[in-house]
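Following up on my earlier message about manganese (II) ion. Here are the inputs again, as you asked, copied directly from the submission form:
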Amino acid sequence: MFSLHVYEERRSRLKALMPDKSLAIISAAHEVIRNRDAEYPFRQSSDFWYLTGFTEPDAVLVIGPGHPDRLFVRPKNPDQEVWTGRRLGPEHVKTHLGIDEGFPIEALDSELGRLLADVAWVEYPFYCQRSSEIVDRTIRPKAGNSRRQDLLSHRVDLSRHLHQARLIKSPEEVDAMREAGRISALGHVAAMQACEPGMTEDQLASVVEHCFRMEGSAAVAYQTIVGGGDNACILHYIDRNDRLHSGDLVLIDAGCEIQGYAGDITRTFPVNGSFTGAQADLYDLVLSAQAEAIQAMVVGKSIKLFHEAAIRRLTEGLIELKIIEGPLEAALDDKRYLPYYMHGTGHFLGLDVHDVGAYEDSGQPIELAEGMVITCEPGIYISKLAGAPATYRGVGIRIEDDVLITKRGPDILTSQVPKERADIEALMRG
Ligand code: GLY
Ligand code: MN
Ligand code: MN
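Thanks, got it. Here's what our run produced:
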């Protein structure tokens, strides 16, 4: 975790935006059963992690202006800990997490009942089911208690302030994301070096993820996508059960997590190490679209410009390759690129791979600001069934990098993995 003062400052900034006599309730995640009594790997809720640095399940943070920060955690239980692992316990909350007061989670409802009696506003992230349930059960059942009835109409969504804070990355967050970018890039390099016709998509995914683990990342930021040939045209293809064929391209979209912060990289390369002429035409088009989009990722520019730059270049190229009809402006007006490029060109990146933060303010696209991290990921997808010339069918290409917006221009956090065709072919030749 980061230094304790990082989390203290985050909580203080949030409290400064809350009205007097308000209390915020933010729940940790809960372990989820996968089958019978086996759980999915536990992943902390991003909002809770951001404010506490604490990675155990079943905890609740309660903060408010003029209140000590309170954390409710699972109590220590040596018998239980032998089976399910160590717990911090309320008595260590202050020293290990720098949070003023620790309580056993069992005391949550009674403590909250007491605290809410003197509160005018209760804030929590509305999307968070566990936080909502806590608020509902502590303010609803007391019919006749007018103070609590008032609170029903004085609930405030904490997400806006919290998510705007998460949108701008601090120096220590940038360091973590740079490391996530570096390790994610190494995973893609390893895959390019290991790829051979006849391997399965899942075997190639295991090469990427093995590298992540060996470099010190405990988790993938999202399920690794490895799609050979036509499978690359399925945007979130996670089946990975086909073999990779010589003559096809393979698309890998994979990123690791460092301290919860995501890397998110896509590379597309030939299974046998050499691009065909038609694959090269499409690949170079996507690469040029990415270059033009990245040039538009500049402080003060509208966030929609980099997507528009990618669309313009892709449309121009699709016309040149006779995959769609021109002229350019008419093709753009009619969105003729849509059958071949159907997603946005990027998204915020942070503790969530599709990170929080508002893309619009009062209906207008926001301007890019220093400290945002945004992916840049144009692509072209021409499935076997598409109406394009046969030579281009069965090909999906995406090239994705993670870009830190700075006053000095776009800073690419994932540049250690090649994307020029000649560099990829040289790496694969070994
Ligand atoms: N890896 C998911 C995405 O690129 O949006
Ligand atoms: Mn992405
Ligand atoms: Mn991705």
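One observation from looking it over: The chain has a mean pLDDT of 96. Hope that helps, and feel free to reply on this thread.
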